[in-house]
Amino acid sequence: MIVITEAGNANFKAIQWDISCLRKPGPPQVVREEIFLVTKQILTGNSRVLRERFDSHQSSDNANQTLRTKEDSISSMEVWLRVLHNTVTPNTYKVAIDEMWYLTAAAENYEFDITRLKTWFDEWYIHQDLSRLSCQQLLFPCLTFDHSQGFLTASREAVYGVPGHIEEDNPTRFSLPRFRLTPIVTQNLNAARGRIRPILHAALWRPAKQLLDAHCSCKEKTLFGYIKALHGTGAWPFDPVWPKECVDDILSKLNRFSYQPAAHACTSCRQNYEAIVKKAAQEAQYYFDGLCLDCMKRSKSGPESDEEDYLNDNMPTPDDWSQPCEVRHGEPTWYYSFMGRREHRDAILKHLRGRHPKMRVPRVNGKNSTL
């Protein structure tokens, strides 16, 4: 028995099934069983489902009241019970990331208020070695438990660190497949990743276009040398590279770019091509900060009564696209975090750019960026 509280007056029996076997012929397999000593009043006060279950298992001895649950894990149920009883222990911060999906399932099955887990999840996140966790796995938990910085970081890492098409990674996809990100989240992450490519391409092509338009006799040799050096990085051209490699790896290769035009080339040909490529890679690196949960929540529902109020609520300040968000970010993050209708997003951008046509966006890292 696991004692959730010494003042307990009821037993709560949790059965952990092999959920992946429930869809197969034959009896389901029990992985583990555990009895928790709990306070009946706390459970019934936090769950209509459990209140009805207790009422249907009347007993003359409260301590013998036993309720069986399904689609739970023992670890996630202990977390929930300790959070509800305010008896959280450090061991709960050691649960695996898989448990976040089971915690969500328990909230749905027993109608627990999932916001009760926010403080616990914030502490769980601090205790994790994030280098061992996939950013694609962290997306759903950080969104579900409203961890703004974690979601911003995970979504940025997905855009820059995932090769090819971005998808979430649900470690319980065979047992709890219904708990997943809404499609628009991954769609916008892939859109942000896709936007980096033309921005980077335009910056790298600009010197080549200048050489093509030049009238000097040394432009052909200089252009050939520049394109050859780009190709030598392994990051150019983008067509065969972009679908297979992550953005971080592509930018890392571009940062190794090395080319010096011939000493006898004309002044217009003797540009600092290494600085040009480095600046292009740097701008691409700082383009996207990740998705912002606050922007997503503000824009998600759409105008229910007054469209003007909705637009004003989602209107960032001209010099800070992250006001009044919990995390700092630039315009691209605001843009891809907008969950409302496209015409509303475009109306906000048109309003801001009409009033501030030369507006530049201060970034956390000191770099400026616009869409």
Give structural notes.
With 371 residues, this protein is mainly alpha-helical. The protein is 48% helix and 6% strand. The chain is built from 16 helices and four strands. The protein has helices at residues 40-46, 48-55, 74-85, 99-110, 118-126, 135-144, 148-161, 183-213, 219-232, 238-241, 247-254, 273-285, 293-300, 307-313, 331-337, 342-355, and strands at residues 2-3, 10-17, 30-38, 68-69. Strands 1-3-2-4 form a four-stranded mixed sheet. Helix 7 packs across helix 8, helix 8 packs antiparallel against helix 9 (219-232) and helix 8 (183-213) runs antiparallel to helix 12 (273-285). The N and C termini lie far apart (57 Å). Mean pLDDT is 89; it is low at 60-64 and 358-371.
Quick summary of this structure?
With 371 residues, this protein is mainly alpha-helical.
